[in-house]
TrEMBL record:
GO molecular function: carbohydrate binding; glucose-6-phosphate 1-epimerase activity
Presence of the UniProt keyword Isomerase in the record: yes
SUPFAM superfamilies named in the record: Galactose mutarotase-like (SSF74650)
Entry keyword set: Isomerase
EC number(s) per entry: 5.1.3.15
Name of the protein in its database record: Putative glucose-6-phosphate 1-epimerase
Biological classification of the source: Bacteria, Pseudomonadati, Pseudomonadota, Betaproteobacteria, Nitrosomonadales
Annotated catalysed reactions: alpha-D-glucose 6-phosphate = beta-D-glucose 6-phosphate
């Protein structure tokens, strides 16, 4: 991608600029009166979001993250699509699909009527994607940056046959201390415990993290909250288009094994993911679309 061309066509003076980021990947830097943000066009991934006046970033981003074609970036809000988790057909395809490790297209940038910045990135099927997943599609991500961060992932079926997807905003939130962070809003909900042979269990009280956690929560409400005592803030997650949510933290042993995480990073990250996962499978019929939405707001008392 030509950075100069992108700035000439899509740049917004003083607020939105295309830059060459780490690994020479094209990125978008947003600096407005409402917030600052960094978006990687590779992977269509928001890496950073910090509202004006906030001392801490909303998101966790690993200092050891990979920035290269064909690799996923560890942190921010990766997109899992058209499947969440392992290859559903067991064909040896990559976990979490194929859009989080390839270059997206810039579709549109604009200032909205209320002064937010809106960026639309997109992908369409190609001969290469058809080999991986034999369906015709148009995928767009509408990113709105203002007092909150709003993500909308829109899947359109441009073919002649229905297809099925699972998907996620696999968002890494920064927390001050994992021992002082809990997730509210999942009390009493059933979940699939991926750490314990996918046994189904029931959540008692708030979700606290004191070991490896990898859970798919079922029939969730559209509002969850991360209570982050160490950073003296709450992160409100409002969603639509989903019936499931995932809570994940690798904990110490797995963090040590991950080449793109520092050993102690597990203490400062918490993934609370807006998902269509497990039995929450979406059918997209020809010439129709589905929309997954997540909105993130930092609240301080």
């Amino acid at each position: 991608m030509n950075i100069e061309h992108l700035n000439a066509k899509y740049g917004i003076s003083g607020q939105l600029k295309f830059i060459e980021g780490k690994g020479r990947l094209p990125m978008i830097r947003v600096s407005s009166s409402k917030a600052s943000a960094l978006i990687s066009i590779h992977a269509g991934q928001v890496l950073s979001f910090q509202p004006a006046g906030e001392p801490d970033d909303l998101m966790f981003l690993s200092e050891k993250a990979y920035y290269q074609v064909g690799k996923a970036i560890k942190g921010g809000a990766p997109i899992c699509w058209p499947w969440f988790g392992s290859d559903p057909e067991e064909l040896g395809r990559p976990g979490h699909g194929f859009v989080r490790n390839r270059l997206w297209n810039v579709v549109k940038t604009e200032i909205t009527t209320n002064g937010d910045l809106s960026i639309t990135l997109g992908l369409v099927d190609t001969p290469e994607t058809q080999v991986i997943w034999p369906h015709a599609f148009s995928l767009t991500q509408e990113i709105t940056i203002g007092d909150t961060l709003n993500l909308e992932l829109v899947t359109r079926n441009t073919g002649t046959e229905s297809f099925f997807i699972t998907q996620a905003f696999h968002t890494y939130f920064r927390v001050g201390n994992i021992h002082q962070a809990v997730v509210l809003g999942l009390e009493g909900h059933e979940y699939i415990d991926k750490v314990d042979s996918s046994r189904q269990k029931k959540q008692v009280g708030a979700v606290a993290i004191n070991t490896e956690v990898d859970r798919i929560y079922l029939d969730v409400l559209n509002k969850l909250v991360i209570e982050d005592i160490a950073l003296k803030r709450r992160i409100q997650i409002t969603s639509s288009g989903n019936k499931t949510a995932v809570v994940w933290n690798p904990w110490k042993e797995i963090a040590v094994e991950m080449a793109d995480l520092q050993d102690m990073d597990y203490q400062h990250l918490l993934c609370v993911e807006t998902t269509n996962a497990a039995t929450d499978v979406i059918t997209v019929t020809p010439n129709n679309e589905c929309r997954l939405v997540a909105n993130y707001r930092i609240i301080r008392d």
